[in-house]
């Protein structure tokens, strides 16, 4: 977990909403503004900011954080909860002379724009931004702590801030907070919040370069062009924060590295039923980027390990979210083992990224490696751009939860056929859960179809799989709904082929799904 606490000594947070439908103050405070403040602090320090920027890139690539702060008056669930109060300063009119072809004293004041100061009064209550699934080693945490201490303001310069890194979220504001939602409102107030993505650091660089440009007059005047930074994610305020804070972490899976599909270059786009072929072929291509086994440049242990040894899982990211899911695999997530299982996971992650670089980058010395799907064709991967990151399919946090109930979207392959009585299904599911550190489920139910439209059906067609890959899928396969006594943090992967995405489950998102 990574938690940054922000305190505003003046008791006010200043930041205008960028929403077209709202010209008032921004609330809750955008994690994108905090990231921008940290990036500014990195460039204000002595020396090369490359290591600081690499650390901030890790924050950008993580799932959208939770925001622990009180609601505004419109969102507060009841009058007993103290809400942040909006502040609105007087509107002033400023000249917009940059729109004229030539600057001239005769043109002063002819074009005017309304300038208003908007903020939220929060008092001495701290705000916490929490990445619950982000794991950093001791050196990275120390670096982030020093970087946070150099931040001078968050939002506008009218809201000086004291930022610090803490081990656990503060007790206040209690059991409620702002958390990212997967599919719209869930019975409490929602809003769109800007969060960083994998392209954020580069986008900030482009904005700064444009602002400092000297040739175009508009840019020379300090007007920043419309370069998008970050993405908007729906957040909700409510008791789900308590579930997130108290959710059980099996400490089996850790961070995920998300890759996109280069659809323009690929010969085909796989679908969810072909997930196993795609992920197996991706592992072969990734291992081929390293030297021979036993040499100094061989693949790291978390890639080449098998059986009970801690190793990565490769999850297909299929289109199962949104109004028109079609099951097309638009990317993949390399899910690393939890640091509790692999103490040197940070060093091994760096080696994994070296291999992935050969799959997503062209170079004069070595063309980009492709993924050869047996009997189908070649697929190329790419680093997801800002547009891809904004799509629901590429947002890995949707597979993380937490939730008490999980539904499979790709069939679970069991080791044995069920035998012996009505509780045989529960015993089988319990064994599958215990293999990944999960507790015994409270209830299990077989489902006829995947939890979401676009998921893979129960038939896996082993005959279409190369013989040397068949052993993991030659067993009973079915969709299941699994419920636990307490919320569980994912991803949840069940069954014998879980390291290749089979048995992938998604959290229940509505009371109807939970029931």
Features:
515 residues; alpha+beta; 2 domains; five-stranded antiparallel sheet; four-stranded antiparallel sheet; 23% strand; globular; disordered C terminus
Task: Give an overview of the whole structure.
The chain has helices at residues 31-43, 50-61, 138-149, 200-211, 217-220, 240-246, 275-287, 301-304, 345-360, 386-390, 424-434, 511-514; strands at residues 2-7, 12-14, 66-68, 85-88, 92-95, 112-115, 118-121, 127-131, 162-166, 177-180, 190-195, 231-238, 253-261, 313-318, 329-337, 371-373, 377-379, 381-382, 403-408, 412-413, 443-447, 477-488, 505-507. With 515 residues, it is α+β, with helices and mostly antiparallel strands. The chain has 2 domains: 2-84 and 120-246; 253-514, no CATH class. Helix 1 runs antiparallel to helix 2 (50-61). Residues 98-103, 183-188, 217-224 and 510-515 have low confidence and may be disordered.
């Amino acid at each position: 977990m990574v938690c940054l606490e922000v305190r505003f000594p003046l008791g006010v947070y200043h930041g205008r909403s960028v929403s077209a439908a709202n010209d008032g103050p921004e609330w809750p405070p955008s994690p994108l503004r905090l990231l921008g403040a940290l990036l500014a602090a990195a460039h204000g320090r002595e020396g090369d900011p490359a290591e600081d920027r690499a650390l901030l890139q890790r924050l950008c690539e993580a799932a959208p954080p939770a925001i622990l702060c009180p609601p505004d008056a419109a969102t507060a669930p009841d009058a007993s909860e103290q809400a942040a109060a909006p502040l609105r300063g007087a509107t002033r009119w400023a000249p917009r002379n940059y729109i004229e072809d030539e600057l001239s004293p005769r043109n002063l004041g002819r074009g005017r724009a309304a300038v208003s100061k908007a903020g939220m009064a929060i008092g001495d209550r701290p705000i916490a931004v929490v990445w619950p699934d982000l794991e950093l080693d001791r050196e990275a945490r120390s670096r982030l702590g020093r970087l946070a201490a150099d931040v001078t303001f968050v939002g506008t310069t009218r809201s000086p801030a004291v930022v610090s890194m803490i081990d656990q979220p503060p007790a206040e504001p209690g059991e409620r907070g702002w958390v990212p939602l997967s599919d719209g409102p869930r019975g409490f107030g929602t809003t769109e919040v800007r969060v960083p993505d994998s392209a954020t650091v580069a986008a900030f660089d482009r904005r700064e370069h444009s602002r400092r440009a000297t040739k175009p007059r508009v840019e020379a005047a300090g007007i920043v062009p419309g370069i998008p930074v970050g993405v908007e994610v729906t957040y909700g305020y409510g008791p789900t924060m308590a579930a997130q804070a108290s959710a059980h972490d099996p400490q089996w899976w850790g961070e995920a590295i998300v890759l996109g599909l280069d659809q323009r270059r690929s010969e085909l786009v796989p679908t969810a039923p072909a997930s196993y072929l795609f992920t197996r072929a991706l592992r072969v291509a990734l291992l081929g980027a390293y030297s021979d086994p036993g040499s100094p440049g061989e693949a790291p242990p978390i890639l080449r390990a098998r059986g009970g040894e801690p190793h990565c899982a490769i999850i297909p990211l299929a289109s199962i979210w949104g109004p028109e899911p079609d099951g097309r695999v638009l990317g993949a997530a390399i899910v690393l083992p939890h640091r509790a299982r692999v103490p040197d996971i940070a060093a091994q992650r760096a080696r994994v990224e070296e291999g992935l670089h050969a799959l997503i980058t062209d170079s004069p010395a070595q063309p980009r490696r492709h993924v050869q799907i047996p009997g189908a064709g070649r697929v190329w991967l790419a680093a997801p751009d800002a547009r891809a990151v904004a799509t629901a399919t590429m947002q890995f946090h949707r597979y993380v939860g937490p939730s008490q109930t999980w539904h499979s979207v790709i069939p679970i392959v069991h080791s044995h056929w069920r035998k012996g009585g009505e509780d045989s299904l529960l015993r089988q599911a319990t064994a599958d859960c215990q293999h990944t550190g999960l507790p015994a489920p409270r209830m299990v139910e077989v489902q006829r179809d995947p939890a979401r439209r676009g998921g893979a059906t129960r038939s896996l067609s082993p005959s279409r799989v190369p013989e040397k890959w068949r052993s993991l899928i030659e067993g009973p396969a079915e969709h299941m709904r699994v419920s636990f006594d307490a919320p569980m943090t994912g991803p949840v992967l069940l069954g014998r082929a879980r390291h290749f995405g089979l048995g992938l489950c998604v959290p229940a998102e509505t009371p109807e799904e939970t029931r």
